[in-house]
Amino acid sequence: MKPLPLPVRLAAGLAVTAVEQARKLPQQLAGLPVTVVSEALQLSMRVQQTVTELAIKGDDALSVLRPVDDEPEWATFDEDEPDDPADDLGGPDDDGDPWAREERALAAEPPAALPDYDALTLPQLRAKLRSLTAEELEQLLAHERTHAARPEFTGMLTRRLANLKDR
């Protein structure tokens, strides 16, 4: 038997491949979104890496023109900060002993306005602020300054107290 001509054999092979691919199509369509998203993420990561590499090369090239500051003006360190008077919770008898200050802070009474004040989170305190009077806010502020001295708490209490006094 004589083999069929090459174009006929190629056409038959192409038809069989088309049928096979058509049968796989539903499975491939299900995974298509994941594949597209994955390839898009890979491409964006490659672009980010390239941009970062170019920026680093640019920094290296420009570093000879601009000397680097030893200490940027925005950098602050604990030893650069002035002493905060709120840190000193005690009198002259404790000689700066942190244990004595902590014992005094723990022994102090909670503020009468909010007995659970020390356990409140910032959002919980924010929710209760509108129900407090100026005197109660002053008590809380004094308590906060002598105990935890958390800047976000003292700031919020100070702003609320100022708003009440402005009315």
Automatic annotation (TrEMBL):
<protein>
    <recommendedName>
        <fullName>DUF8129 domain-containing protein</fullName>
    </recommendedName>
</protein>
<dbReference type="Pfam" id="PF26450">
    <property type="entry name" value="DUF8129"/>
</dbReference>
<feature type="domain" description="DUF8129">
    <location>
        <begin position="122"/>
        <end position="166"/>
    </location>
</feature>
<dbReference type="InterPro" id="IPR058442">
    <property type="entry name" value="DUF8129"/>
</dbReference>
<feature type="region of interest" description="Disordered">
    <location>
        <begin position="65"/>
        <end position="112"/>
    </location>
</feature>
<feature type="compositionally biased region" description="Acidic residues">
    <location>
        <begin position="70"/>
        <end position="97"/>
    </location>
</feature>
<dbReference type="InterPro" id="IPR047728">
    <property type="entry name" value="LipDrop-assoc"/>
</dbReference>
